[in-house]
Specification:
Five copies of one chain form a homopentamer.
Chain A: H1 5-12, H2 19-30, E1 40-44, H3 47-51, H4 53-57, H5 66-75, E2 80-84, H6 85-89, E3 101-104, E4 106-107, E5 121-122, H7 126-131, E6 136-141, H8 148-164, E7 168-173, H9 182-185, H10 188-200, E8 205-209, H11 218-226, H12 234-244, E9 251-255, H13 262-274, E10 279-281, H14 284-287, H15 291-305
Parallel strand pairs in A: 1-2, 1-10, 2-3, 3-6, 6-7, 7-8, 8-9, 9-10
Antiparallel strand pairs in A: 4-5
Amino acid sequence: MKATQTVRRILANYEGETPGVKARLCQMLMNGRLGGTGKMVILPVDQGFEHGPARSFAPNPAGYDPHYHYKLAIDAGLNAYAAPLGMLEAGADTFAGQIPTILKANSANSLMSSTASKDQAVTASVDDALRLGCSAIGFTIYPGSDAAFGMFEEIVEMRKEAAAKGLATVIWSYPRGEALDKDGETAIDIAAYAAQIAALVGAHVIKIKLSTDHLSLKEAKAVYKDEEIDIATQAARVKHCMQASFDGRRIVVFSGGAKKGADGIYDDARAIRDGGGNGSIIGRNTFQRPREEALEMLGKIVDIYKGKA
Amino acid sequence: MKATQTVRRILANYEGETPGVKARLCQMLMNGRLGGTGKMVILPVDQGFEHGPARSFAPNPAGYDPHYHYKLAIDAGLNAYAAPLGMLEAGADTFAGQIPTILKANSANSLMSSTASKDQAVTASVDDALRLGCSAIGFTIYPGSDAAFGMFEEIVEMRKEAAAKGLATVIWSYPRGEALDKDGETAIDIAAYAAQIAALVGAHVIKIKLSTDHLSLKEAKAVYKDEEIDIATQAARVKHCMQASFDGRRIVVFSGGAKKGADGIYDDARAIRDGGGNGSIIGRNTFQRPREEALEMLGKIVDIYKGKA
Amino acid sequence: MKATQTVRRILANYEGETPGVKARLCQMLMNGRLGGTGKMVILPVDQGFEHGPARSFAPNPAGYDPHYHYKLAIDAGLNAYAAPLGMLEAGADTFAGQIPTILKANSANSLMSSTASKDQAVTASVDDALRLGCSAIGFTIYPGSDAAFGMFEEIVEMRKEAAAKGLATVIWSYPRGEALDKDGETAIDIAAYAAQIAALVGAHVIKIKLSTDHLSLKEAKAVYKDEEIDIATQAARVKHCMQASFDGRRIVVFSGGAKKGADGIYDDARAIRDGGGNGSIIGRNTFQRPREEALEMLGKIVDIYKGKA
Amino acid sequence: MKATQTVRRILANYEGETPGVKARLCQMLMNGRLGGTGKMVILPVDQGFEHGPARSFAPNPAGYDPHYHYKLAIDAGLNAYAAPLGMLEAGADTFAGQIPTILKANSANSLMSSTASKDQAVTASVDDALRLGCSAIGFTIYPGSDAAFGMFEEIVEMRKEAAAKGLATVIWSYPRGEALDKDGETAIDIAAYAAQIAALVGAHVIKIKLSTDHLSLKEAKAVYKDEEIDIATQAARVKHCMQASFDGRRIVVFSGGAKKGADGIYDDARAIRDGGGNGSIIGRNTFQRPREEALEMLGKIVDIYKGKA
Amino acid sequence: MKATQTVRRILANYEGETPGVKARLCQMLMNGRLGGTGKMVILPVDQGFEHGPARSFAPNPAGYDPHYHYKLAIDAGLNAYAAPLGMLEAGADTFAGQIPTILKANSANSLMSSTASKDQAVTASVDDALRLGCSAIGFTIYPGSDAAFGMFEEIVEMRKEAAAKGLATVIWSYPRGEALDKDGETAIDIAAYAAQIAALVGAHVIKIKLSTDHLSLKEAKAVYKDEEIDIATQAARVKHCMQASFDGRRIVVFSGGAKKGADGIYDDARAIRDGGGNGSIIGRNTFQRPREEALEMLGKIVDIYKGKA
């Protein structure tokens, strides 16, 4: 499969990176209905860990079966499917080679006390990802948490190993922690900072949340006002986050958060597209809907990124 | 020994797993009076560590001798015998090859202050299990404990090593910790979540406790009500836990807790069977009874799983 | 030197253990005046670390010199001599091959604040023991301490290495910690539990203290009463501790604690003998007495174990 | 390129150091407009990590692009460019060989709570520096922080590895922590102490801040008075810091802190020069200005070190 | 150079030690004006780390230059020179082979808060010592500190590596910590205990402070009184500390603490000599004096150990 010029241009930004990493990024960028456009839609299913099985799968019980999600991602023509160790293992053989997979290598859960909840456990390794035929590892960092330094050190080590073994690294950069209030977690200055940190520690693909026009850090507020940074619309905020991701030299995909109406999801996708983002990573909003409805929604999102909707 | 089709179907769920792991799972599934049925009864004797020797063995002093439990498990025709390092070592040569063994690789005890009691010590290694001819390692995690992340990281590393060396992994997933009250430890939403976590970190066999119809997590309560998840009977709760174990793609065995009357134990076994569970892991209720009584009880439990009682 | 049948029967209990470990156990069991009887008397000199040099050696200043203790153990015809790294090194060449030695591999001291005093430092390694020609390593665990899990993990790793390199492991199992009061540290239920834990983590030789008829754990009290466990005499308590040591499948030696009168020491030895214990580990009560007096005392203890006194 | 006698004299101070380290120091000392003079001007761009992207780059948005800084350092004829992992990776191929680079190997950020802010995360490795063709690693220590011992141990290990692999080590020695108030962080006694510590743990190049004439440590105050140490002018303080850096046997570069007027910057450079310092490390004051203005400023600083301004 | 009989007798106490260690001890014992006498005078210069550069070197500014101290030790005909990594590196080539050096491998400083000040950072490695041609590593332990266990474990590991690589180990055993008051730090019972601990963890050379006749530990007081241990004079206390150092089987050198008058220093040396100690380790009292005065003082101290003053 020959890579398009758009994809080759994106790959060129990963200067000095191993051919293995570039090959895996290429594989994800060339896969599915958005293959070759430089845009990506990824299905992540780590909610069984984060929120428990019933909250995640009871709304559409077919989702209790790990095979369901492989099939959904394949049939919707997505770029990649991301999940924790057990989920991937349960279908790794049946669906081998049918869709690029991302092994989510650390995980949190809703059973911990608040003291312990600002961190994640490392629940898989680079060798697990190799064994399961994955294209990338996924890793969450919590900028703002007292545990953040430890998480940075974990992913820096793991990324080095992954790159040396030819795997790409996707970093979920989710501001959370002792120093942030609830509004701060989705504030635009924090979101841009989170993207910057992910880029600085070496992410190949950055996953951040869509943000609000709230500003959280005192020192940042002045700068946003003085320099008249446009954060009025979601598209403007996406654009600012792309700036913070080495002026667009890194692939950035956005998540929209909790389950919401279809129109809201489409608006999000259009804002990501218009702001120059690389795509969506969308989980509960698809797999908690009936399969046909989910396929239709994913189809429409793909069309939006293609500029057809 | 040719594996039955039932067993081969179960093994097929362990996609991409090493032949060594599958061979060991097969060995346990094909052993004893339930061999080939896909059902299992396991004898665990780690109470000497957990509760001390007198509380565990004084009711039936023959049990002070580690040989007693090997013999009990063999004579009852069980699938496997699980115990800590010292217990297995004390009979490893005499009973070599006569019953699959599971080396319990971490342990707690009743001597610690409450602060320290939400964790376990790693008291054996994968190489110990190989040396002693075991089929699997056993490992307890405490979802809900502040120490849970550390425990997850320990078992993920140990499971990887065990699988690479051809040993299966059994995870005791026991909710416990700072964030859970006493009722929460046996609540059905927590039990299902515990099963899910064990599956996600890569358990080949999951051991959980039978649960009550209590719901513990606020966010979960709404889901169980909205989605009308049936948790009214023990069989229904077992069924829900099997869903949470990758829709039955993982072997799950259930324990019943403290010593109780024989009828209660048989009712438990029937509920596990009717809910689609894979079997029982039953310790004090057998080895604290006189040997003949215990053999009779285990015989009846086996009959229940065979559908004859 | 041909091992006696008694010794061979004891060695047979170490099922699946390396020939190296069995050879070292045999060496200690066959050495000295009790050689071949299955009984042992060991001289431990770690009090310089635990209590400081003056408290340990000023009563008999000859003991400041490490050579003194080697000579005492050799001349008294004991089974083994146990000491920390520096003590053994200071005579390792002069007395090479003249008595089996046990390298005490962790140590506490009386200079720490109470917060830090529930743990020990690892102050020697298995390779140190090999280099110095030792027969075994010695290691203290404090069941009941918040640091106990760490200590268990240390000795489990160290024991594995020692066994692989052909050295036996002696565990000092001394209940101490946040969850125990002063009476609890010597209570019979705790002593038996401590012996059980040492056996479970893989001790070849267990060292515990003689206990009182006090019962400490609430849940244990009921069991001791209900099951009518005999703890009335020291001999009965020794017998119960042997039960807790895999029904006598492990070698157990007992210490008597602080310096006391000679008659008390002889009574202790008789109780250990009558309860089926394997012997005494006796330090301050010998090396703080003048050499001739100490030799006479050790001679009489040996005679007691031979049934002659 | 033949090294000047001045540079060879500096290199001779690194006694017993590997030829690799000396070659890299030589490379930096011989590069750019100050090449061969023994003076250095370095561009550091780690503010995206430390203060976030908008505060760092919004004043001159061209700086969002990592290529901008490579070009600025090259076009200004500087000695070296220092930045974190992601920043260097994003231009490592395009600018390979055009300017010596320093991989900043640990990083802090402004999102942490104050409790966690006295430390940094290790965010890159020596092997990363080798892979990216760097001349040195950079590492921050916080003398005065409770985390300082850990930071010292990290850099001592990393320096050893770097030197063995032929890379130089630059230490940012920034007093900060529980034991220091705001004035203490820039006090001259503390600055000299920080330089001394960096030298003692093995820095090849020391980076400290310009200091005030404040004295912070009680014991130090007396000495400065009794011995009549001259700390009245910035040049005198630079001179004292050079004394504290093994009497000038180590290269020391100074930073001036927050953005300030051009005249202040030139005064700083003259003081460094007159006090015998080796040069400036200057970031925000250049890259936050428009490129032409920054080039002019850097040109003038270079002239100052050449004694022409 | 043929070792004297006195030196050979000292070396014989290091039973079973590697020839490399013995060679290095021999090298230090045979060097300088006291060579062959079994006595040692060592120059330690770690005060730049401990107290900062101005407090250490401003009284005699020539000492800012690391070369100064090498020369002082050489010209005074001392046995060895001890300093941290950077200090040794700065003269390692110029003075190679001219005096045995001891690499101080851990360090504290006066910038830490009191919480953090009961520990030291490991700031050099055994391989650093080999690379720099050192004869020994030096390491401080703080018996009495909550961090002491960690320090013991560090030096036990490091000593093992050093001995295997043919380097001797000098332990600075300085009582300090949560459990000791100011008087306790220099009390004779604590000093003897500190010497004993250093010997037990394997020190080849022990460095302790001269002590007072204060007794600190309650249990020790009784023993000193009951056993009538002579602690009335400094010489008697030195003698007692030699007892505590395996009855003189280990080399012990004493430091006198803060700067004091010349006569006090000479009295100290005579007490050490008369009590049977091996010598002095003396820093500030020499290098803070003008060079000629320091040389004269060191000359007189050497004469004292030779019995000529």
